[in-house]
Amino acid sequence: MERYRANVMLCAGTGCVASGAMKVKTALQEELKKRGLQEEIKIVLTGCNGYCAQGPVMSVHPDEVFYQALTVEEIPRLVEEHFLKGRPYQKLMFKEPEKKVAIPLMRDIPFFKYQVLRVLRNRGLIDPESLDEYIARDGYQAAAKALTQMTPQEIIEVVKDSGLRGRGGAGFPTGLKWQFCSNVLSDVKYMLCNGDEGDPGAFMDRSVMEADPHAVIEGMIIGAKAIGAHQGYIYVRAEYPLAVKRLQIAIDRCYEAGLLGKNIMDSGFDFDLEIYQGAGAFVCGEETALMRSIEGKRGMPRPRPPFPAHKGLWEKPSVLNNVETLAQVPLIILNGAEWYRSLGTENSPGTKVFALTGAVNNIGLIEVPMGIPLRTIIYDIGGGMKKGRKFKAVQMGGPSGGCIPESLLDLPVTYEDIVKSGAIMGSGGMVVMDDNNCMVSTAKFFLEFTADESCGKCVPCRVGTRILLDILTDICEGRGREGDIEALEDLSQDIISASLCGLGMTAPNPVLTTIRYFRDEYEAHIKDKWCIAGVCRDLCTFFIDEKFCKGCMACQRACPSKAVVGEKKKPHRIIQELCVHCRTCYETCKFKSIKILPAKAREAQPSELIELVGTAQKKQ
Questions:
Q1: Under CATH, which number does the domain 6-107 receive?
Q2: Which pTM does this prediction carry?
């Protein structure tokens, strides 16, 4: 900061790299050199900045001016405006969806404004491949304190007093898990990090490993000292090549600096660490399956007890924590348990990282205090619903989670409250859905994933999830029968009570929560053969209400099967024999003239159609 007039912090997380961040970097370098600014402006490649949907993104420090949706073509103008004329380039600034007013400073943008960063404290601020930059942000001070000033039991007591709960999904108290392992006498113990993260739409752990790998390593060093382990593994799925690369660079730097290996910081404590790449099986997120995978066996869970704290990796006492949990440990050791409890609630202290995605305007990675209402996340941080549509539900906890309806939008985000709703906190996936979503189809989508990812070891999960999926498929394709809803509920309870591991125990959650809050949609599918949202193609038809059609031709141009016919400025109609029920016309129409009717409307008489349209208007 003393040497350069400005630091350009360009996001080089997976999302931004996929959007062209490296091409933007090259264009920036060339333009700065062309203008003679290469000695005044420094470009730093950071990890994930959080605002993933608008990538590539960057911030210019020390002013914290934020730019989004960068393109190679806009770089010359940006350099000229910002670095030569000294005025931020408005075209690439964040603009609120409705007001369209440019907001230059990162701290004033609603997406960032309402967040509290602890796990993500270094995001967008450091080069993740630089040990020096991590140390400059208080890195490894907590490890030094734990190794040279604290006993293992003192470390455990601080973590226990903090109330830190595992952020991998179960929410088990971290300090208690460490205590169990510490109490076991053994010549060999293992400290493990779970970076497998298999939930669709979840990228919290990946982003932390890419943006701040040293925070994870430091947490593992502290945990290893607490339980008496001298060997550690970071289990990362092979689909995360950038995370693997940056973790390996960080581990190599630590060995060079004496922060890993023998006699760390002259403390007398030894700890070796290596990466193990998983093959991408969802079930390997379960701790015993993960350990079997590291052993070179097929990743399948085993019955517990004995628990891993007593018999884990290679039958030795082991502790497994996820990435987000370990990244919080250095802060707790450095600042104390009371500081950590200053955020959150009594039983759910601290912050939680979520991958916010779906039908909201602002998509990305967020960190918020525990206890924050869902409404604040969706409408303040998320910027509300896209295209002004109506909120319908939010899926929390990934494929093993549940759907929370609009009536519970003020629900505080805590482990206890989320479980009461029928969902789970999970690792932090949060998928927002609007009224265009069919909840029966949504449950089917998540069941397809969990049924495919079942390891097959236990019958309730292997067979039960398939039967659930078959019933849901029948309902979505018009073969639903009376009693199917009750069959889904009964079978779900059997799977939950009899499955061997967490995958099977939580797989029915999407089914149970959608039935609990959207039972009317199931009944409409079964009794009326009608998907009110127009998603299940066999259970809907589309009809143009001439009273509202303006003849703008938009739906006709968009229709892929040429089923929409009509003249300009005159009401259109849909030829049902040509319609493929793709929803394109429905989503294109700005005048709400297209109605979603039951499948039987395809052969209905005019008088019946009028009645069906009236019913549709009331329900939709």
A1: 3.40.30.10
A2: 0.92
